[in-house]
TrEMBL record:
Protein name from the UniProt record: TolC family protein
Protein family (similarity comment): Belongs to the outer membrane factor (OMF) (TC 1.B.17) family.
Signal peptide stretch: 1-29
Annotated keywords: Signal
Cross-referenced InterPro entries: MdtP/NodT-like (IPR010131), OMP_efflux (IPR003423)
């Protein structure tokens, strides 16, 4: 979990403080599960459940699109209970018929094709939602680890500052330093203590966000497996057809299918009927059959057709823009990832140099060859170098999360 910095000898004080904090923590404190364990349970996160439900709804609509229209059954009686010669029911004509709407012109096939296209787009959006959740979880996990590391570095910085202040106070008591130097040293200790308190609050907030995002039943108290120290491995990805472009293509296909559906709705509705007519007066019966056709004079569905075509044009424009935008975004994300890897390597080298400089400066201060101001400046450079190394690792995680989002996969 910790960045492999070589600690100076003065860090012994930090070990004492860290031990005190550990003893003061609850006995039930357990580290957060590893990132791999958390992404194995993506199916229970609200965003994934929502996307899965929307996919189920789209599949159900695709299944419903195969259904044939329901027939109609009618029973009619004519020439009954009127004036002579139609008094009573003796001269009645009773008709029982069944009517079935006929889906001609390819209407049913177009409806099924549109529903299938919507289901395919919903499936791709479900995948995109899963990878987005995985990326967000990786980022929150890394931010929690970074906040924990920054708190530990602040505690260590407080220990170093306190050790330096003790050395200054010893010189003040011996008369080798002015009282003002002691006051300055005590002020630096209080400032370092305030930073430690602030980083502790940030760490607790980051742990709370991680517990909420991962839907953990127990509070997070530490990070057991480091994500910041993990370097992203090269991932072979077909950048010609990223997931976002696939979704846009599926939405364009669905929009084209909708145009066909609306265009065929303007065709006449045809209904076939078949029945039996009973002639009560002659005690006889006969078949009856017919076809009814709607006449599209007043409503030709022009508005719906125009709306569907406009949505198709919008989908085409969105696809064209995405193809250019995603390629540019992926190139930029890859460049940021490469730069963050180089920055992390440089930051680690800077930490090693700063630690060696501080070790020499402390030895020189104890020997009286280096002033307090020089020691303070070198100590500040060491603290800044260590925090820079944490920031570089967090930037590397962010670059990997962005690249994974564009590629349509889980980070790392």
């Amino acid at each position: 979990m910790f960045i492999s910095f070589d600690r100076p000898l003065c860090a012994v004080g930090f070990a004492v403080v860290a031990t005190t904090i550990t003893l003061a923590s609850p006995a039930s404190a357990e580290p957060a599960p590893p990132y791999e364990t958390l992404i194995e349970h993506l199916d229970r996160t609200p965003a994934t459940l929502e996307a899965e439900a929307l996919l189920d709804a789209a599949k159900a609509r695709a299944q419903q699109a195969h259904a044939l229209p329901n027939p109609s059954i009618s029973l009619e009686a004519e020439n009954a209970y009127g004036r002579s010669p139609f008094t009573g029911y003796g001269a009645a004509e009773t008709t029982f018929s069944v009517s079935q709407p006929l889906e001609l012109w390819g209407q049913r096939g177009a409806r099924v094709g549109a529903a299938r296209a919507e289901a395919e787009a919903a499936g791709l959006r479900r995948d995109q939602s899963r990878w987005a959740v995985a990326g967000r979880l990786a980022l929150i996990y890394a931010e929690a680890e970074a906040a924990s590391l920054q708190h530990e570095l602040a505690i260590e910085a407080l220990s170093l500052t306190q050790a330096d202040a003790n050395a200054v106070m010893a010189l003040v008591e011996e008369g080798r330093e002015a009282v003002l130097r002691g006051v300055q040293a005590e002020s630096e200790v209080e400032a370092a203590r305030a930073v430690a308190d602030e980083t502790q609050a940030n760490r607790d907030a980051a742990f709370a966000r991680l517990a909420a995002a991962a839907m953990l039943t127990e509070p997070v108290t530490s990070i057991g497996t480091s994500l910041l120290d993990r370097a992203p491995s090269p991932f072979a990805q077909d950048v010609r057809n990223p997931l976002a472009v696939q979704i846009a293509e599926a939405e364009l296909d669905a929009a084209g299918q909708s145009v066909t559906v609306e265009r065929l709705r303007a065709r006449p509705d045809v209904t076939a009927s078949l029945g039996v007519r009973r002639f009560q007066e002659y005690d006889s019966q006969a078949l009856m059959f017919g076809i009814s056709v709607s006449v599209p004079l007043l409503d030709r569905n022009k508005g719906a057709i125009s709306a569907a075509r406009a949505e198709q044009r919008a989908a085409e424009a969105r696809l064209t823009g995405l193809k250019l935008e995603v390629q540019a975004d992926r190139s930029a994300a890859q460049a940021r990832l490469d730069a963050s890897i180089t920055r992390t390597r440089a930051a680690d080298n800077g930490v090693a140099s700063a630690e060696e400089a501080y070790r020499l400066a402390r030895a020189g201060f104890d020997a009286g060859r280096i002033s307090q101001l020089e020691l303070r400046s070198i100590r500040a450079a060491l603290i800044a170098a260590r925090n820079t190394a944490v920031d570089a690792r967090l930037a590397r995680v962010r670059a990997e999360v962005e690249l994974a989002r564009l590629d349509g996969r889980a980070p790392f």
